[in-house]
Design goal:
The chain is mainly alpha-helical and 251 residues long. It is 71% helix and 0% strand.
Length: 251
């Protein structure tokens, strides 16, 4: 008998990567995005959103110097900086399993990397770094939009409201990522233990393999970089609005 095939998961790379690392099927959403947003945005944010959409902001002249600054690969610079922070994090530093002999500070560090709480703490720390960096970028881009047309000013106001309205929900949803990675970590470790028992050797001094740990680190790094891309999507939308205005104004 053939095992039933898992349903294809659609969406951003972040979602597809997490789905690939889990053993459970991910059901398709029962409601549309607009229906879900209606449940996530409370009445106070709904009022603020309505005000931002219905307002008549005054027209302003977009300073070319500000526009050039926006188009000067600011979004790419922030992404590169945050991606470097992820890749260079100590969670992905190579470690050698401790061999026989007295314990040391280095061996204690190695022991720490063999348990998931270490990686969970690093993931949460990197999430905070991403949230802060992307938040500053969105504020910068919104400030640029306020120097543009009434539509651009309105877009900046809407983005600010949506960031406040969905921030808590976003953090709650993204907090599931380290939990899913923890399950992936345990499955890889258990599989490695089973394989080691099956291939047991008389050489007691043989260093244990950490191939499973390197696989987990690679997967965790991939998930973090994919999450970064998801977090940057609102900022990329704001930047696209600025570039569209620049293109139209010079046409």
């Amino acid at each position: 008998m053939q095992a039933p095939r898992r349903a294809t998961v659609r969406g951003p790379t972040f979602i597809r990567t997490l789905a690939r690392l889990t053993i459970a099927d991910v059901p398709p959403p029962a409601r549309s995005l607009s229906d879900q947003l209606s449940q996530w945005v409370d009445w106070t944010h709904a009022v603020a959103l309505s005000t931002a959409l219905d307002g008549r902001p005054p027209a302003a002249l977009l300073d070319d110097r500000i526009l050039r600054s926006a188009e000067d690969d600011e979004c790419a610079r922030v992404r590169a900086s945050l991606a470097s922070a992820i890749v260079a994090d100590r969670a992905f530093a190579a470690a050698t399993p401790r061999g026989p002999g007295p314990a040391s500070a280095a061996s204690a560090d190695v022991d720490e990397t063999l348990d998931f709480p270490f990686y969970r703490q690093r993931y949460l720390a990197l999430q905070q770094t991403m949230e802060a960096g992307v938040g500053r970028l969105r504020e910068r881009l919104r400030a640029m939009l306020t120097h543009g047309t009434p539509g651009m000013v309105r877009l900046a106001a809407v983005d600010a409201v949506m960031e406040r309205a969905l921030g808590r929900r976003e953090r709650a949803l993204l907090s599931a990522a380290p939990t899913l990675l923890g399950q992936h970590f345990e499955r890889l470790r258990e599989a490695a233990l089973v394989a080691a028992d099956a291939q047991a050797t008389a050489d007691a001094q043989l260093a244990p393999s950490t191939a499973w740990l390197e696989t987990f680190r690679k997967d965790m790094r991939e998930v973090l970089l994919a999450e970064l891309d998801v977090r940057l999507q609102p900022a990329q939308g704001l930047l696209a609005a600025l570039r569209t205005h620049a293109k139209n104004s010079h046409a």
